Amino acid sequence: MSPTPVITVDGPSGSGKGTICRRVATALGYHLLDSGALYRLTGLAGSRAGLDPADEAGHAALALRMGLGFGVDAKGEERVLLDGEEVTDRIRTEQAGNLASIVARYPAVRAALLERQRAFAQPPGLVADGRDMGTVVFPEAPLKIFLTASAEERARRRYNQLKDKGLSVSLADLSREIAERDHRDASRTLAPLVAAADAISLDSTGVTPEEIVARVLALARGRF
Ligand code: C5P
């Protein structure tokens, strides 16, 4: 039996991975892994349990046993559950993203989430969104994309996303936070944000999501 086809999409915050992955998964009828959500949920579970952000073992224990739920509501909006409780908006704030990138540096947390992420690879296929999908979690994936966009465009997209959700943020603060988070993600020793040697780099600056999706689907057609 051939293994389940996996498409990995890695890249920095705001490069458009979430939108692209969701659309590619829908077009192919594949499952979706939003690995960033797992790190965000680990951070949230830790703060709910009153853990110090520096508590690696405590966060790893929660990463192993926290109850996950992913789905869409009647309006087609994503819904994320932590231990049965709806936390979608809670995990999408910049604060939750920053906490996620702190706990994501811990080897024990990454190890705890490894098999949980691999378990998402179910027939007929998986689109995996993250930072280390092509390098660490699914190194054998037949199609690996590394999605980038200019720092300005990534900050602007994030700003618009948060504004749409009714959250008030300043573009300058957001640009600074994104730069800090990118630096933390790219400079950590374990599973840093880096393109796999066999990844295809796509730059989404000034390109519509439709065009990127069409590119990925064309690449997938050639491989699966
Ligand atoms: O993609 P998202 O912004 O939701 O990810 C939140 C944080 O989780 C990232 O900044 C990164 O530190 C961490 N992360 C990771 N490895 C992944 C996905 C996310 O370290 N595969």
Written overview of the protein:
This protein has 224 residues and is an alpha/beta fold. It has one domain (6-223): 3-Layer(aba) Sandwich (Rossmann fold), CATH 3.40.50. It contains ten helices and eight strands. It has helices at 17-28, 35-48, 56-65, 88-91, 94-103, 107-118, 133-137, 151-164, 171-187, 209-221, and strands at 6-10, 31-34, 68-72, 78-82, 85-86, 126-130, 143-148, 200-203. The strands form two sheets. It has a five-stranded parallel β-sheet with strand order 2-6-1-7-8. A three-stranded antiparallel β-sheet has the order 3-4-5, covered by helices on one side. α1 packs across α10 (209-221), α2 (35-48) packs across α3 (56-65) and α3 (56-65) packs parallel to α6. Cytidine-5'-monophosphate binds at residues 13, 35-36, 39-40, 97, 100-101, 104, 130-132, 181, 185.
**Uncertain stretches of 5 or more adjacent residues:** none
Provide the list of bound ligands, each named once: cytidine-5'-monophosphate
- Domain count: the total is 1
- Mean pLDDT, nearest integer? 94
Question: How would the blueprint of this fold be written?
Answer:
Layout: E1 6-10, H1 17-28, E2 31-34, H2 35-48, H3 56-65, E3 68-72, E4 78-82, E5 85-86, H4 88-91, H5 94-103, H6 107-118, E6 126-130, H7 133-137, E7 143-148, H8 151-164, H9 171-187, E8 200-203, H10 209-221
Parallel strand pairs: 1-6, 1-7, 2-6, 7-8
Antiparallel strand pairs: 3-4, 4-5
The structure holds cytidine-5'-monophosphate.
Cytidine-5'-monophosphate binds next to helix 2, helix 5 and helix 9.
